[in-house]
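Feature request, filed as a ticket because there's no other form

It would be nice if the structure record came with a short human-readable summary line next to the tokens. Right now we just get the raw output. Example of a typical job, pasted below so the devs can see what we mean:
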Amino acid sequence: MSSEGASPEQVREPRARYLWLVAICLLVGAGALVFGGVRTRAKTDGEVARRTAEQAMPSVELIAPKRGADAQQLVLPGDIQAFSSAPIYARASGYVTAWYKDIGDTVKRGEKLADIDTPDLDQQYAQVKADVANAVANATLAAATAKRYHELVATSIVSRQTDEEKAGDATAKQASLEAARANLARVEALVAFKALAAPFDGVVTTRSIDVGALINGGGNTGTALYQIADIHRVRIYVRVPQAYTGELKPGTKASLRMPQYPGRSFEATLVGSSNAISQESRTALIQLQADNPDGTLWPGTYTEVHFELAPNPNALRVPATALMFGEHGIRVAGVEDGAVVLKTVQLGRDIGSDVEVLAGLVPADRIIDSPLETLNTGDKVRVVKGDPAAPAKVVDAETRKKTE
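Raw output as currently delivered:
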């Protein structure tokens, strides 16, 4: 049937079907576009949320505890002191007339250091010598008189009472003589100090007198006139933390290093300790000695004292930066299945940048280096260096420092 002969209703029906088909296709396309957009947006939002959650996780670097099998070195500050040191004060008052030794000069025992003019002491010396002479005369006369009176007692010319009085007087005069002689010896000892002398072989480290200076004797306050030090051998004093006192015994060797002698070291030997721990610093004072035949080591010098300590094969070593300090004691933060596990540890010796762990860790553990103080057990973290599942790939502290 041709379209010319068709009725309007028959022409209108196919067009309506076509329009409905187009509308349905448009709706389906629009729905697909909307669904695709929503799905893409949801996927993007999920990726953003996932990335945000990952970024919110703390990034951590894992390290492995190391066995303390290597020789360990303990470095402590020390002070060098002379083997013997003596300040020289004057025992006699007067004026310095001459001095013979200056700082840096070597002296022998008994060698003269300076002369002191003592006019007052000289007059006192003359007086006590005269007192002794007078006492000798009195004692001699009293003894002779007592002897004569004793001989006359037998003839009854002198009474026994008088004889005893003269004998007592002779004894008293003899006692006065002994006292005068003792006083003379005292003044003679002071006169001997008119010349200052070295008490032992050594070197002059201080001179505080000059010609014409007034010296007040008889005291040890104020500035010493001379300071003499025996430095053929020196003493080194070191304060050792309590944790190491059990290992440092007499006979332990150490090396001394000083900034004025770069590249050089000097051997010293531990000779004793104070056998007491200071409550303020929890350290013990130990003494070492070192030979110093050429005088290279000066009293008062600061030195680094290096001890070689035997390793503890049962202890693990971790960087000090891995420790967490808090109300629950000292802990480290391990990682298991991506979550934090806080472990309380017992520390041993402090070895510079590392510390010994005696309990609380095993070699297979992997811990966080420089953990955040806010970390708690169960917190999720993101490992950026070091694989907890592959111990051989864990980056240790030394490798980490090199890469940095």
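Something like this underneath would help us a lot:
The domain at 229-309 is CATH 2.40.30.170 (Elongation Factor Tu (Ef-tu); domain 3).
The two ends are 91 Å apart (CA to CA).
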